[in-house]
Amino acid sequence: MKLFWFEIVKTFSRWRTYIGFGVIALIVVLTEVVMKLSATEILYRMMRSLQKDFLIFGNILNGWFVTAFIMNGLHIHIPFLIALVAGDIVSSEATSGTVRFLLIRPPSRYKIITAKYVTTLFYTAGLVIFLGLVCILPGLLLFGSGDLVLHHYGRFGIVFIPEVEIPLRMLFAFMAAIWSMTVVASIAFLLSTLVENSIGPIIGTMAVVVVFLVIGNFPFDFFQSLKPYLFTTYMIFWQRFLDDPIPLREIATSATILGLHSIGLFFIAFGAYARKDIKS
Amino acid sequence: MKKILWLLWVLFLLSPEQIQAQEDATHYLDTLGKKYSGLKDYTVDVRVHFDIEGFKAPDMLAKLYFKTPDKMKIESKRVFFLPKEGGYFNPFMFKKEEFEIRLLERLTYDSRNAVKLRLTPKKMKGSTRDFVLTIDADQNLIREMNISSFEGREVKAVIEYGKFSDFELPTHIELQLDIPFNESRRIKDFGQSAPKTERITGKVEIGYSNYKVNSGLRDEIFKETEPPLLRGGS
User: Fold this and answer.
1) How many Å apart are CA A262 and CA A121, to the nearest integer?
2) Which residues of B touch A244 (CB under 8 A)?
3) Which of A51, A103, A271, B129 has the fewest CB atoms below 10 angstroms from its CB?
């Protein structure tokens, strides 16, 4: 616990840690202000295909919708902000020359690496929770509350979630988002244990995420057959909490696959750190 | 030869039977208009139940205000969807001067005498191609309404009535929808932005209760206070 606390203090005393929070706050607030100013245009684009057949009344562009909209847009960019800290957490000790000093102290390597990993997860969770708060609170303030109407683009599909159900569903959606981002954090963490600079793990993590996303979205049969084997396929399982009915089996499968990835990556990092040569 | 055929066609149209049928058809709309001539406004609670594949929504409730000739307002604390075609009752929407009217057939509907009329708008208003109305000739009520559009939209409304303050007004409308849906699929289809059309079929059931008829609704009630797209227009 003491080690974890030290790691927290170290992590949050670096200015780099706050880049993610600052960027998220800036993007979300900017998006919400722009959405508020162009509400009519957004509504027209959103409901264009439905307005041919239905008269639509009520506050559709509400805080909950804005939150879901921003979450959809940002889930590709958040990994970069996570990698910024997770990719630095182990390798920074080598860069700053403190790794030998750290590893000759009484706590075992296992305890140190575990404390660093838990700190990485804490930061990841903090960043996603911050995203949630900065989306929901100003969103509700600017746009008000209401039922959540989600329209699947490209095909006919409307999901209507009553207002009373939304807070709980959003809570689960954000928990699922944290769970997904844990895999990204674990990749960055593993790469961070393997190298002695921070740039490599950050770029490496983003390269993995981007390549997997691109492969998963190519509409060719070969790439589509690879899709089930890419962790990025399951990373959007938070969206399933906004489906009706909630596909619990699919959620459980995605959560298990992502969880196994995180555990696997952590154990590899654990092994690599245990064998790390600090004498040369 | 062509001229002769045209002449025969014109003579057919001007034949006494055709003129009689045309007059009859107009007469049904006239009678319908007279039946509701005393209706100034009404307020009613609406419950909409959707049974459409891909449209997952609980029943929606709202209060509907209607004032002649065509003012309509929906009051709902929550999001509310109402089918544009046939979603609410306006007995004055079929003005004989706005349509080409053809009597299609005389039939028996629910053991009553009925007629089927085809109404084709004289001026293009929206995308509606024509309406086919099944009118109960004994009671002067529209029992069924088939609406087709140029875009391939087909809507069938079956209407049940109840009596409220001397007026027969709908208590239940069942809409059967068969409508095209297309939306650009730019990302999914790797840069192809050509719309892919799918058909949406399903049923919408609309229940009407707690009618208040001719309560003297003021015009101010119908003034919009929100941006038109939030309201969806009326």
Assistant:
1) 10
2) 56
3) A271
Q: Are A154 and B183 an interchain contact pair (Cβ–Cβ within 8 Å)?
A: yes
What type of residue is A271? G
Which domains occur in chain B, in start order? 21-231 (2.50.20.10)
- Smallest CA–CA distance, residue A57 to chain B, in Å, is 4
What local confidence, expressed as pLDDT, does residue B11 receive? Answer: 56
What CA–CA distance (Å, rounded) separates A18 from A123? 10
Of all residues in chain B, the one with the smallest CA distance to A158 is: B55
Does the structure's ipTM exceed the value 0.90?
no
- Smallest CA-to-CA distance from A267 within A197, A190, A183, A152 is with A190
How close A3 gets to chain B, by Cα (Å)?
A: 47
pTM reported for the whole predicted model? 0.80
Dump pLDDT digits (tens) for A247-264: 999 999 999 999 999 999
Torsion sign (Cα): A166, A168, A170, A173: negative
Chains A, B: CB contacts within 8 A come to: 110
Contacts of A160 (CB under 8 A, 6+ apart): A147, A148, A149, A244, B56, B57, B58, B79
Neighbours of B201 (CB within 10 A): 11
Cβ-defined contact of A55 to B82 (cutoff 8 Å): yes
**B58/A53 CB distance under 8 A:** no
Give which of A61, A156, A246 to mutate to test B binding, by max B Cβ within 10 Å: A156
Is B230's CB within 8 Å of A59's CB? yes
Strands, E, within A39-171: which ranges?
54-57, 148-151, 158-161
pLDDT in tens, B144-180: 999 988 888 889 999 999 998 889 999 999 999 888 8
Q: Please give the Cα distance from B110 to B122 (Å, whole number).
A: 32
Helix (H), strand (E), coil (C) string for chain B: CHHHHHHHHHHHHCCHHHHHHHHHHHHHHHHHHHHCCCCCEEEEEEEEEEEECCEECCCEEEEEEEECCCEEEEECCCCEEEECCCCCCCCCCCCHHHEEEEEEEEEEECCEEEEEEEEEECCCCCCEEEEEEEEECCCCEEEEEEEEECCCCEEEEEEEEEEECCEEEEEEEEEEEEEEEEECCCCCCCCCCCCEEEEEEEEEEEEEEEEEECCCCCHHHHCCCCCHHHHCCC
Instruction: Work out the average pLDDT over A120-146.
Output: 94
User: So where are chain A's domains?
Assistant: 2-274
What was the pLDDT predicted at A14? 85
Q: Nearest residue of A to residue B127 by CA position?
A: A52
Region A223-229: what's the mean pLDDT? 88
CB contact at 8 A, A162 and A147: yes
